[in-house]
Specification:
Blueprint: E1 19-22, E2 25-29, E3 32-36, E4 39-43, E5 46-51, E6 56-59, H1 67-78, E7 85-87, H2 93-96, H3 99-105, E8 110-113, H4 118-121, E9 129-131, E10 137-139, E11 144-149, E12 159-163, E13 168-172, E14 179-180, H5 203-209, H6 218-231, E15 236-239, H7 248-263
Parallel strand pairs: 6-7, 7-8, 8-9, 13-15
Antiparallel strand pairs: 1-2, 2-5, 3-4, 4-14, 5-6, 10-11, 11-12, 12-13
Residues 92, 94-95, 173, 209, 240-241 line the site of one fe (ii) ion (FE2).
Length: 264
């Protein structure tokens, strides 16, 4: 399962990104500093790579400012293989901002997902669009990535991804959390961080990206999320704006409290 799940702070090196979080599933990212005086908080802009026997897919792309780092790391992990698909969870910079250079770097790569409006960004690449709907699966050979409805969505064409064999859920803007500025903490999972994630850690991104939470009934939102999780059992949750979550039940409760906090 998750490599280096137990981080021995005295003997083992602290994990850094990119990091293999399950066999053939890699976590990439660089943190955006959010200045909230007197604090500097770190906020993840994560991407995830799935390697299958036949094909590879990158879930989200990170921000354009992270391209130089992503390009180098991606090429290292791919180790000569091409990137076959990119799956942006929705058309906003942290999720699709590097599709342009990816199209150039990997000339056979296709863009998959709910691609409404993408022709406005990439009119020259429409022959490389592969529209997919919730319920459809992307065949990677010995594994697949399912397109699933975003139970917590940012904009109407948000989609989540679900890898049923490893029980990994890619949740885009949901389950966000910031962490206070500490060196070497960006590659730690929810259970490895020195302190537990608190509801207030989730507020920054919920307030920015999921502003509708202020105006909607959190009971209804949680009923929808819990029903989704019953149909899609998860061991690992991969948010775009938080570290990898290895204790989904506990962090679902924290996320719920964070939404209720923003609504107050
Ligand atoms: Fe978003
Ligand atoms: Fe986002």
């Amino acid at each position: 399962m998750l490599q280096m799940q137990m981080v021995n702070k005295t003997k083992r090196p602290t994990p850094t990104l990119p990091r293999e979080i399950a066999s053939g599933t890699f976590w990439f990212g660089c943190c955006l500093e959010v200045h909230l005086p007197p604090k500097i908080l770190h906020n993840h802009n994560a991407s995830y790579l799935l390697l299958g026997s036949k094909a590879t897919v990158l879930v989200d792309t990170g921000m354009p400012y992270g391209w130089a780092q992503l390009r180098t790391e991606l090429q290292t992990v791919l180790n000569g293989r091409p990137l076959d698909f990119v799956f942006p969870t929705h058309p906003e910079a942290p999720h699709m901002g590097n599709i342009g250079p990816l199209l150039e770097l990997y000339p056979r790569m296709k863009i998959v997902g709910d691609l409404r409006n993408y022709h406005l960004y990439y009119p020259h690449a429409q022959d490389r669009f592969q529209t997919m709907h919730a319920g459809e699966s992307l065949d990677l050979g010995d594994r697949r990535l399912q397109m699933v409805p975003a139970a917590i969505h940012d904009i109407p064409n948000s989609l989540w991804g679900y890898e049923p064999d490893q029980r990994i859920l890619f949740v885009s803007d949901a389950y966000p959390y910031t962490h206070e500025h500490e060196a070497h903490q960006c590659g730690l999972t929810s259970e490895e961080l020195p302190e537990e994630i608190r509801p207030e850690d989730t507020s920054v991104v919920i307030g920015f990206a999921l502003n509708w939470v202020r105006h909607t009934d959190t009971d209804v939102t949680m009923a929808r999320l819990n029903a989704f999780l019953q149909r899609h059992p998860v061991d690992i949750i991969c948010p775009a704006h938080g570290g990898v979550i290895t204790n989904p039940r506990q962090v679902t409760r924290v996320f719920e409290q964070g939404m209720r906090r923003v609504r107050m």
